[in-house]
Amino acid sequence: MPTAYADDTCDHGRQLNEHYDAATAGQTLLARLREAFLAAGRDPERLSRDDVAGIDQLHLGGRSASRALAALGELHGGERVLDIGCGTGGASRLLAAEYGCEVAGVDITSAFVEVANWLSAATGLAERTRFLCADAAGVPLSAGSIDVVWCQHALVNMPHVPRVLAEWQRLLVPGGCVLLHELVAGDNREPLALPVPWARTQATSHLRCREQLERAMALAGFEPLEMEDVTDAALAWRQEHSRRESQPDGTTQHPTALPGPALIFGNEFSRMGRNLRDNLAAGKVRVLAGSWQRGKR
Ligand SMILES: C[S@@+](CC[C@H](N)C(=O)[O-])C[C@H]1O[C@@H](n2cnc3c(N)ncnc32)[C@H](O)[C@@H]1O
After folding, report:
1. Structural domain boundaries enclosing 148
2. pTM score, whole prediction
3. What is the 59 CA–ligand 1 centroid distance (Å)?
4. Domains in the chain: how many in total?
């Protein structure tokens, strides 16, 4: 029923905006990040992609994981990409800068969209990336206007995956590709250690097991091409980052350091990271990277 959908979507959007913009304290995320770049001796209007890497890769493995996904999808350059749940836009900028893609990012968290647009302008990538605030189940783009749907760690936030996948079918050209780097439930079904970076409660975490994800993709009409379980590499990366975050000053933002994820997630971030590490190590969470094709018709 349309009304129920509207209510559910509203609730989902509000809950995510609260989750990802929790550290606000009377100042927008954009204003806080700009101040942090100034304090680190950077001009917030002229930044490099290295400068912003600490705040624009909100997934396990950082830029290496995005490059590996692009390799898995055999991106050659020039593709029209839709980055679903783009966050602050790091993967979109990577695909534009390193692969010459033309990227639209969509995210339901308005503070992230504002930051994504600013970071693209500041890094000189505004002409090849644009960001829209919308639910992935209703993207304001034309049917058949996208070659590649790209999605990293965002389905885990979504309660309405079949509707989102139907939207990917509408947006992709025949033969278009889906590239997914996603968190799924492992065999250990004990409750997650919480909070984790994507959720503070069990009810707002939408982890599905690999088989459920594969079935949902098949039901939506996508043919599997490749699938890799990248959990071991993700765990090693998370262990290393948790080790660094546990060093003196590792959990809080040093006043002159380049901004890191704690500026987005607040001081809870190191705990979220440790919980994610422990959930991965205990087999409660696994990480997949895969590609699918939309049928040619
Ligand atoms: C864990 S973050 C990952 C961000 C980004 N993909 C990255 O890897 O840096 C998940 C993102 O998905 C977004 N998201 C969740 N549900 C969404 C929805 N229904 N529509 C659009 N974006 C959504 C969140 O706002 C958040 O920015």
Report:
1. 2-184+205-233+290-294
2. 0.95
3. 10
4. 1
| Domain-located, residue 211 | yes
Q: Is residue 249 part of a domain?
A: no
For 119-156, what is each residue's pLDDT tens digit?
999 999 999 999 999 999 999 999 999 999 999 999 99
Residues 110-121 pLDDT 10s: 999 999 999 999
CATH code for position 66 = 3.40.50.150
Ligand 1 binding site (Cβ under 6 Å of any ligand atom): 16, 20, 57-59, 85-87, 90-91, 106-109, 112, 135-136, 152-154, 157-158, 198
Residue with tokens 């349309």: 2
Tell me if 215 is assigned to some domain.
Answer: yes
